[in-house]
Amino acid sequence: MSELAQQVRSGDVRALARAATVVENRQAEADELLKELFPYTGRALVLGITGSPGAGKSTLAAAITRQLRSDGKTVGVIAVDPTSPYSGGAILGDRIRMQDHHADPGVFIRSMATRGWMGGLARTTTDMAVLFDAAGRDVVLVETVGVGQDEVEIARLADVTIVLLVPGMGDDVQAIKAGIMEIADVFVINKSDLPGADKLEREVKASLSLAHRPDNWTPPIVRTIASDGQGIEGTLAAARLFYQTGNSRSRAREIWALRLREMLRDRLIERFPKEQFDRAAADIVARKSDPYSIIQDWLGSHA
Ligand SMILES: Nc1nc2c(ncn2[C@@H]2O[C@H](COP(=O)(O)OP(=O)(O)OP(=O)(O)O)[C@@H](O)[C@H]2O)c(=O)[nH]1
Ligand SMILES: [Mg+2]
């Protein structure tokens, strides 16, 4: 085993930070490192937290972190910010730091921006979760803004997906539109100090009664006031219940089947230099060749 992998395994926080950079930047050694570490994974509980901008995801993540720390658990936090490298992640970092986790080696936070390439974010996020798992983190929290298909994909990488809704924002309708409704294993009605929580709960219940999940799980609805630390134990209990029923396992197989496809596609494409695509495109446009022969040829020489 490489020295870095050993240090990560031993829980060395500085090594974990170095490894996280290797993974995030997809340096050449990332695959080797993850290969070494993968056998030591499968122990962490990976919780995805998703919801509209400002729903309170970071506040909830910080409150859950506080709860887990007082239970003696170690935590890794991945904040995925698809829009800006500065907002979500930095806010989460600041907030957690403000609340006594500064200099606590039991909390490791990494925020990631897309840098304009959505396609790879789900993959990098999973790799990061693998890394944190191998490093012995008991719980890995993944915060993503649930607005589009890519966020939904990221959310699917978690063992348990928590969807945050907020009263009085028409969130229920938005959630259904974005396909968020189907991915929720646990619904959290955050900001339940605001008016409209009852109405929202009724609406979520109504749409749940119409949905049918293949695993027959009915997502529980938990109310929280994350900013006051209320409802945190209930949220964790609901997430653990889903995990313990074994539902996460069967979904893990689906997720890996999808992920393998994505990895195969990525790896295959990475083998061909960009110029080769450009040249081939020029040949196609000039009718010197056709896309079918080109692909056949490429696959033949790279299969
Ligand atoms: N009233 C009320 N405000 C809350 C609650 N939870 C969070 N907030 C506030 O809502 C605002 C947004 O919270 P964040 O945790 O930053 O929300 P977020 O979903 O992480 O936001 P983005 O990462 O920017 O999408 C902050 O001002 C919080 O203090 C709550 O339960 N009740
Ligand atoms: Mg946030």
Question: What would you say about this model in short?
Answer:
With 303 residues, this protein is an alpha/beta fold.
Please provide a written account of the structure.
The chain is α/β, with parallel strands linked by helices and about 300 residues long. It has helices at about 5-10, 15-25, 30-35, 55-70, 90-100, 120-135, 150-155, 170-175, 180-185, 195-210, 230-245, 245-270, 275-285, 290-300; strands spanning about 45-50, 75-80, 105-115, 140-145, 160-165, 185-190, 220-225. It has 14 helices and 7 strands. It has a 7-stranded parallel beta sheet with strand order 3-2-4-1-5-6-7, sandwiched between helices. Residues about 85-90 have low confidence and may be disordered. The chain binds guanosine-5'-triphosphate and magnesium ion (MG).
List all distinct small molecules, including ions and cofactors, that are bound in this structure.
guanosine-5'-triphosphate, magnesium ion
Q: Would you tell me which CATH topology of the largest domain applies?
A: Rossmann fold
Radius of gyration: 21 Å
What's the level 1 CATH class of the largest domain?
Answer: Alpha Beta
Order of helices and strands: HHHEHEHEHEHEHHEHEHHHH
Number of helices: 14
**What percent of the residues sit in helical stretches (DSSP H or I)?**
40-55%
Instruction: Give the domain tally.
Output: 2
Shape: globular
CATH architecture of the largest domain: 3-Layer(aba) Sandwich
The proportion of residues in beta strands is 5-15%
Class from secondary-structure proportions = alpha/beta
According to DSSP, the number of beta strands is 7
Name of the CATH homologous superfamily of the largest domain: P-loop containing nucleotide triphosphate hydrolases
- Overall pLDDT confidence: 84
Q: What is the straight-line distance between the termini?
A: 30 Å
